[in-house]
Amino acid sequence: MINSKLPDVGVTIFTVMSRLATETRAINLGQGFPDFDPDAGLLAQVDAAMAAGHNQYAPMPGIPALRAAIATKTQALYGAAYDPETEITVTSGATQALMTAILAVAGTGDEVIVLEPNYDSYVPAIRLAGAAPVAVQLLPPTPEAPGYRPDWDAVRRAITPRTRALVINFPHNPTGAVLDDGDLDELERILEGTGVVLISDEVYEHIVFDGRRHASIARRPALAARSFLISSFGKTFHTTGWKIGYCCAPAALSVEFRKIHQFMVFAVSTPMQYALAAFLKDPRHYLELPAFYQAKRDRLEAGLQQTRFRTLPCPGTYFLLADYSAISDAPESEFARWLTTEHGVAVIPIAAFHADPDAPASNRQLVRFCFAKKDSTLDAALERLQRV
């Protein structure tokens, strides 16, 4: 018999809801993937790379051209200089990068702080490292402050001598919350004088709205010096199925990161790396992303205002939260299944991003809509939602 290392873990909510959407032929606004193709120019670069013979193993940390392009982009956007040779590693998606970073710094008896609700890979990765996850709740929406936001005082109280890392994710999945300069100030004050490593999941770095500037930890030298900064080309270039991300970290942290990376995946898709390196030469491909997704956010938000759902602010990511309390008092998971089966629109319950999805405190009658979809998909879903 196998002694499971993750005895409490089952199939993820994303798999469950996507399967239910397929079975019921519902419109899937649950799982966070686009239903449109990436740029034709990027696909052409993949064909060109394959035709040029780039079909064998890439160097373990990633091809030099892509690492150099990542360094150039990060310097231009955030003023942070990462050495492509020793401080940037190309990974098999951001999820692999996150697990690798956690395994690199945490072990038996250690603690890793996560902000809850949180993306579902963090806690299993912490447990696989032998460490204990410590959940700090985001401040929930109130009439005065209708969006989620970090509780930095609670984070400060959660740090103990056993704390090895703090995992943050902004723009935040699932709530859409973003940081500002004041938050970075708080992070600097909290971590100063500690040995805590910061793991910053910034996969939605280019999806921020209403003229906001992404508050990357790379903007602050004191934070960057103790951080793994992780991002994803899947989110930026609509290629979630390629599973290519990257990690920027100081050389000493990157050494430990690469020790694990090389035995976890060794390297990632070679032709895709060459294609991305070429595509990154034109910054418009990511600089225009906020406007592209803001139009979709506004379309979904305007449509939901014609329904019984009440939308919450969405300053970042391609997810929009909505309150369904005017429709039902059912727990979030139950409501999400009902909406999928009875009205043909799949969503994700926010309770699923908590350690205990069934706890009353985890159920605030909120569901997450993904608007990384064709306008026709959003319009068809809205037509069904208006009948709820």
Automatic annotation (TrEMBL):
Give one GO term, molecular function aspect: kynurenine-oxoglutarate transaminase activity
For this UniProt record, give its keywords in alphabetical order, as a comma-separated list.
Aminotransferase, Pyridoxal phosphate, Transferase
GO CC term (a single one): cytoplasm
CC cofactor: pyridoxal 5'-phosphate
Keyword Transferase set for record: yes
InterPro entries, sorted:
Aminotransferase_I/II_large (IPR004839), Kynurenine-oxoglutarate_AT (IPR051326), PyrdxlP-dep_Trfase (IPR015424), PyrdxlP-dep_Trfase_major (IPR015421), PyrdxlP-dep_Trfase_small (IPR015422)
The record, for CDD domains, names: AAT_like
- Give the Aminotransferase class I/classII large domain ranges: 26-385
Asked if the keyword Ribonucleoprotein belongs to this entry, the reply reads no
Q: Which PANTHER family match?
A: FI04487P (PTHR43807)
Q: Which family does it belong to?
A: Belongs to the class-I pyridoxal-phosphate-dependent aminotransferase family.
Name by which UniProt lists this protein: Methionine aminotransferase
Its organism's taxonomic lineage begins at:
Bacteria, Pseudomonadati, Pseudomonadota, Betaproteobacteria, Burkholderiales
